[in-house]
Structure formats: structure tokens, C-alpha cells
Write a structure and sequence with these properties.
The complex is a heterodimer of chains A (about 240) and B (about 190). Chain A is an alpha/beta fold and about 240 residues long. Helix content of chain A is about 35%, strand content about 30%. Chain A has 8 helices and 12 strands. Chain A has helices at about 40-50, 70-75, 95-110, 115-130, 150-160, 180-190, 205-210, 230-240, and strands at about 1-10, 15-25, 30-35, 55-60, 65, 80-85, 90-95, 140, 165-170, 195-200, 215-220, 225-230. In chain A, the strands form 3 sheets. In chain A, strands 6-9-10-3-11-12 form a 6-stranded mixed beta sheet, sandwiched between helices. In chain A, a hairpin with a 2-residue loop joins strand 11 and strand 12. In chain A, helix 4 (about 115-130) crosses helix 5. The longest helix of chain A is centred in the middle third of the chain and has 15 residues, at about 95-110. The model of chain A has no long low-confidence stretch (mean pLDDT about 95). Chain B is of the alpha/beta class. Chain B is built from 3 helices and 11 strands. Chain B is elongated, with a radius of gyration of 18 Å. Classes of the chains: A alpha/beta (about 240), B alpha/beta (about 190).
């Protein structure tokens, strides 16, 4: 699914990623944990092609394609999805218009005709119910005036609608109460299948109680310093990141 | 003076009498340079004027607005909203003046002009001015010149919306408060060519 080799990246001239190696197989859920400033969000940004991040060394293959050569929209069409740590507000654009444009762009890239409006609205309604979003949100402007929990729920709704093959959840659990956390976890778990993978980026163990990762990686100073299973979460919980 | 909305000719002087409402809409689409020079006198108590303007300029087009809103009588109300986008090496100037005469107490006058520049060579000069000679008034003006929001663009692109379409969506939402009813599709088409 994803093969990252010796990835180095700079932001504003400063090297943040220092040689990341990470391989993610189909159907696997990987947790990437680390202290603040370790490079977790930079890794998510580089994988999704956010402008302003300069890759200085290394390769990333996504389903056999050179991910780093692709535009952000091409990455989305290929099945990559980022749940933003800080979802962006888009005044003047409704969630319906936004997601209809997204779904149809993806279909067009795959050589499929646009979805009929009725079919799209039905699908949207179904996915909103799934993340327990109230139907009136369909007409709201994207993230404008949303609470923190509503923004994160909107991210999971978009993920459910776009059905990506690889989802990256960047600190999706930060600032969520237990109920919202469960909704996010249910969303991630429902998408789990042998063809879909996920990277859960977090510095916090809570979400990982509800979404069981297959692998846990510790990221420090821009490198993965330790890889293991669930036992690593407990070790971090009891002794912090300094032990690595 | 009618109560309906209509598209204003580029030059004009309007006198709005007591109790009348003037609605003017201005639309400047790519393909021409234009000077718009309009003055509105609110002559009788309770007169109202509401102006909306939209402009899209590209290449080396020059678009100049000169709007004077003159509150001459008490209790009049005026609003102005002008939103525009400049690409290419277009040059836009917006001079908007609100004058409130000494007798025009209880005036309410608002003016806003917002701009997006798409290139480094496009130039927008906006100069809102207030001249107030009465003391019991509510007046405000505001002007902004900015660029397309890069965070919004990346967010849309990360969901698979192509860059050009993401820009169009963003520009459309910026202009939506000033798009005359029924002209949405025409404006959207024009946006694809700025």
C-alpha cells in the first residue's frame, strides 16, 4: 500500500523529517506516536502534498506510484485521505457543494460519469447518519461556526463518503470528549477491511483504546526510533517518550 | 424613482426623494475597461439607496469606480457592497465617498469594498472616504485587498477537487453576496477565464 524510504523533509529551511522508513500493508492500521515537535504532522503534510514542505531525500510509493510526484488532488483520486488536525473553514461553500465537487472529481478521474444529484444526496444522508451528524449540516458552510468536535466529525464524515484506501488521521482525537471520540473510532473501525489501511497520528493513547492498531511506531526528532505492537502504547503511557 | 433593482449605466446622477428606495447593481465582466462614475443624492427624509457591485478584470483592463453617496436629508439609509477580483495586469481603482450634510441627522451609511488579486502584476487601489458634517449618524466603511486563501485551496485539493475548480469555488463564494439574481451561471463561466 505505502512504502516510505529514507524520507527527509524541510519546512522553512529547517529539517523536520530525518530519514523515515515505514511500510504499510493493505488492511493494516498503524499508530504513529511521538512528543510534540517530533514531526508527526509534517509527515502527514508531506504525504498529502501540502505546499511549503520540501522533500530533500527519499521516496514514497503509494500502490506502486511515485506519491511525491503527484498533486494533492491526484493523491486523493488515488485513494489517500487526510483527516486534518485543524480542519479549514470555507465560508460561502456548503458541505453539500464541497463534497459533491469532491466525489465527482474523483469519479471523473476514474473515467466514471458524475453522480446523479438524487443519488449523491441519498449517499450523503446515509454517511451523515453514520457519524451522527444532524441533517441540517448538509446546508452549512464547511466548518464555519462548528465546534471542535463537529469539525472532527465532519472529517470522519468526509472520510466515510470518499472511502479512501489509505486514511491518515492527524491528531483527530485531540480536543474530543469521550462521546465524540467513540464516533470517530466507530468511523475508522467501520472502514476497516482487508483492502483499506490507516495511519493514526497521535501523542495520546485514548483513541487507540477504541481503534486497535496492528503496529505502533514511535517518532522522535524526525525518525522512527521504535516499532512494536500494542505493548508500546502501555510503555509510553507509563514512562513517556524519554525512554526511547 | 422605482423600487426595483436594475443594472446601472456607467455614469449617472440619481436623486432619491423622501421615502423612495434606489437599488443599483453594477457588473463588470472581463473583456472591457470601464469607468463607472455615479453619484447618488439622498434628497428627502427616509430615502434609501442600496448599491452592489461586482467586477472581474484580467489582462491589461482598467476599471475605475467613483461613487459619491451624498446624504442631504435626515433619516436616510445607504448601503454599498463592492466585491471584485483582479488578475493579469489589470488595474482597479475604487474611490467611494460618503458625504453627510449638516442637516442629515440620523443618517445610516455603510460602505464596503473587498478585493482579491490573483497575480503579482494586478493592482488594486481602494480609497473609501467619509465626510461627516452631522453628529448623530451611524457610518462605517471598510476595504480589504487579499489573495485566495491557500489553506482553503489545499483543503479542497486534498479532497480531490482540482486546483482550478477549487479556485473557482472560492472566487464564487467571495462574489456571491454581489451576484445579481439569475446571473450565477454567467458569472461562474466568466470566473473560469480570469
Amino acid at each position: 500500500m505505502l512504502e516510505i524510504k529514507n524520507l527527509h523533509a524541510k519546512v522553512e529551511g529547517k529539517e523536520i523529517l530525518n530519514g523515515i522508513d515505514l511500510t504499510i500493508g493493505a488492511g493494516e492500521v498503524h499508530a504513529v506516536m511521538g512528543p510534540n515537535g517530533a514531526g508527526k504532522s509534517t509527515l502527514a503534510a508531506v504525504l498529502t502534498g501540502k505546499p511549503g514542505y520540501e522533500v530533500t531525500e527519499g521516496t514514497v510509493l503509494f500502490q506502486g506510484q511515485d506519491l511525491l510526484a503527484m498533486s494533492p488532488e491526484e493523491r486523493a483520486w488515488a485513494g489517500l485521505f487526510l483527516s486534518f488536525q485543524y480542519p479549514i473553514e470555507i465560508p460561502g461553500v456548503t458541505i453539500t457543494a464541497f463534497m459533491k465537487a469532491a466525489v465527482n472529481a474523483k469519479r471523473k478521474a476514474a473515467g466514471l460519469p458524475e453522480m446523479k444529484t438524487g443519488d449523491f444526496l441519498k449517499l450523503m444522508k446515509e454517511k451523515m447518519a453514520f457519524v451522527q451528524m444532524k441533517p441540517e449540516f448538509a446546508k452549512r458552510e464547511v466548518n464555519v461556526g462548528f465546534s471542535g468536535g463537529e469539525k472532527k466529525r465532519n472529517e470522519i464524515f468526509q472520510m466515510a463518503l470518499l472511502e479512501p484506501s489509505l486514511s491518515i488521521l492527524d491528531e483527530t482525537d485531540s480536543g474530543l470528549d469521550v462521546d465524540a471520540l467513540k464516533i470517530v473510532a466507530d468511523g475508522v473501525n467501520a472502514l476497516r477491511n482487508p483492502e483499506r489501511s490507516a495511519i493514526i497520528v497521535t501523542h495520546y493513547h485514548k483513541l487507540l483504546e477504541y481503534v486497535q492498531p496492528d503496529f505502533v511506531h514511535v517518532l522522535k526528532a524526525g525518525r522512527i526510533v521504535k516499532t512494536g505492537g500494542r505493548e508500546l502504547i502501555d510503555a509510553i503511557e507509563s514512562k513517556g517518550f524519554d525512554q526511547f | 424613482m422605482g423600487h426595483g433593482k436594475y443594472i446601472a449605466p456607467p455614469k449617472g446622477m440619481y436623486q432619491v426623494q423622501a421615502g423612495e428606495i434606489l437599488n443599483l447593481e453594477f457588473v463588470v465582466l472581463p473583456g472591457e475597461s470601464k469607468d463607472i462614475d455615479v453619484s447618488v443624492d439622498l434628497c428627502g427624509p427616509g430615502a434609501e439607496a442600496h448599491l452592489k457591485g461586482l467586477y472581474l478584470c484580467k489582462a491589461d483592463e482598467k476599471v475605475n469606480f467613483r461613487i459619491v453617496m451624498h446624504h442631504k436629508a435626515p433619516g436616510c439609509h445607504s448601503t454599498q457592497l463592492f466585491n471584485g477580483i483582479a488578475g493579469g495586469s489589470a488595474q482597479v481603482t475604487f474611490n467611494g465617498t460618503i458625504v453627510v450634510a449638516p442637516d442629515a441627522q440620523k443618517t445610516e451609511a455603510f460602505q464596503e469594498n473587498h478585493n482579491i488579486v490573483l497575480t503579482e502584476t494586478a493592482v488594486v487601489n481602494t480609497k473609501p472616504q467619509l465626510e461627516i458634517y452631522a453628529d448623530d449618524v451611524k457610518c462605517s466603511h471598510g476595504a480589504t485587498v487579499g489573495q485566495l486563501n491557500q489553506d482553503e485551496l489545499f483543503y479542497m485539493r486534498s479532497r480531490g477537487i482540482p486546483e482550478s475548480e477549487a479556485k473557482t469555488l472560492q472566487m464564487l463564494s467571495f462574489l456571491s453576496p454581489v451576484i445579481p439574481a439569475g446571473r450565477e451561471e454567467e458569472i461562474e463561466q466568466a470566473l473560469r477565464h480570469v
